[in-house]
Amino acid sequence: VSPGFELPLERPSKIICVGRNYVGHAREMGNSVPNEPLLFLKPPSALLPPGAPIVLPRVSNQVEHEGEIAVQVGRRLRLASEDEAREAITHVLALNDVTARDLQRSDPQWTRAKGFDTFCPVGRPVSVESLNELGMRLESLEVTTSVNGELRQHGRASDMVFSIPFLLSYASGIMTIEPGDIVTTGSPDGVGPLKPGDVVRVQIPGVSSVENPVEAE
Ligand code: MG
Fold first, then answer.
1. By the 8 A CB rule, do 215 and 56 touch?
2. Quick one: pLDDT at residue 210?
3. Is 30 exposed, middle or buried (0-12, 13-18, 19+ CB in 10 A)?
4. C-alpha 22: how far from its chain's center?
5. How far apart are CA 58 and CA 195, in angstroms?
6. pLDDT at position 1, please?
7. Strand 120-121 relative to strand 47-48, pairing
8. pLDDT at position 25
9. Helix H or strand E encompassing 147
């Protein structure tokens, strides 16, 4: 982590991600919506605090923002039902699934495209209790992404192909989800390039946000 910045959460054992979970984003990438969740992982070493710079690696010419709604669980999930998964969610946070799009196209696996250091900015997690106090539910969450103050993405949890509890239940049938693990739920349409000097902000309005400058390696 860059000096002077502190992660707003404890480093999780893993960051579980899902591809193509909004119809609009699948379409803009030229893909159809999958029949079941398309999972991948980002390494915890990619986590980046608010304010710290996203570093564009030399080996990519097309790094893009993906603003997403992410959640954390408070207890271990293994073969969990959707109800069990919903009950285990303790926090919601804004997450930027920064992606080297050219490398995502060239590599059959996404580890490199999604895994560079600084490619996972995260906002401060907000507890589900305080969401409820605000009269919000998981299904009512929205996510926006702006670059240099200009709105680029706007998605709603209610528009996801697979709901948040379904994603957690599905993932828990593959791997144990540990307390503190982050599950991020896919990006709406409007993904686009980042260049040095940009400032990118992902926001779950009224809940959590993360803003980062962008710099060249
Ligand atoms: Mg994504």
1. yes
2. 98
3. exposed
4. 13
5. 12
6. 61
7. parallel
8. 86
9. strand 142-147
In the reported structure, the alpha carbon of residue 18 is separated from the centroid of ligand 1 by a whole-number distance in angstroms of: 6
Q: How many other C-beta atoms are found inside a 10 Å radius of the C-beta of residue 24?
A: 14
Amino acid (one-letter) located at 103: L
Question: CA torsion sign, 107 to 13 to 157 to 78?
Answer: positive
What pLDDT was estimated at residue 4?
86
**Which residues, including other chains, have CB under 8 Å from residue 130's CB and lie 6 or more apart?**
none
User: Tokens 């969450």 map to which residue?
Assistant: 141
Query: 97 CA to middle of ligand 1, Å?
Result: 5
Q: How far is the CA of 185 from the centre of ligand 1 (A)?
A: 7
C-alpha–C-alpha distance, residues 179 and 47, integer Å: 17
Percentage of the chain beyond pLDDT 90 is 93
How many angstroms separate the alpha carbon of residue 17 from the centre of ligand 1? 7
**Residue 85: φ, ψ to 5°:** -65, -45
Report how far ligand 1's centroid is from the alpha carbon of 190 (Å): 12
With residue 142 as reference, give the H or E element that holds it.
Answer: strand 142-147
Summarize pLDDT for 127-174 with one digit per residue, the tens.
999 999 999 999 999 999 999 999 999 999 999 999 999 999 999 999
C-alpha triplet 22, 27, 32: angle, nearest 5°: 85
Contacts of 171 (CB under 8 A, 6+ apart): 16, 37, 39, 177, 183
Give residue 110 CA to ligand 1 midpoint distance, Å: 11
Ligand 1 center from residue 151 Cα (angstroms): 18
Number of alpha carbons in the 13 Å side-chain half-sphere of residue 96: 44
